[in-house]
Amino acid sequence: MSFHVYLSGEIHTDWREEIQRGAEAAGLDVVFTAPVTDHAASDAAGDHLGETSSQFWRDHQSSKVNAIRTRTLIEQSDLVVVRFGDKYKQWNAAFDAGYCAALGKPYVTLHDAEIVHPLKEVDAEAQAWCTTTDQVVEILRYVLKA
């Protein structure tokens, strides 16, 4: 049985690769998916649809194109990992967590203790709060091999 895990959130560190390496080392049958992590490409996802009159409409257009991928992959996943970094506000990650909650889709959060308070509602709906990628891998190991 392949377990499908969507890796949502922060794009400025290698946390996704750490989880993937850990799952592989543990011999877990996991298929990982993610949003487009090339920031410029994501921002330009809707540019082919034509020029817009403002940055708002460019962002609006691209967010809708990005949502095709994001919604599909979240809906197809067995678990979503939502990573919040400390450098930027990841509103998209918070939205993904809310989408998971609305769908009844299991998700875990991954973030430092310093941002527990602003994420209290997001964490309250999560099945777990992790502070390390090793903890995420251990959850996957338990779910798949216990």
TrEMBL record:
Pfam families, per database record: Nuc_deoxyri_tr3
Name used for this protein in its record: YtoQ family protein
Lineage: Bacteria, Pseudomonadati, Pseudomonadota, Gammaproteobacteria, Oceanospirillales
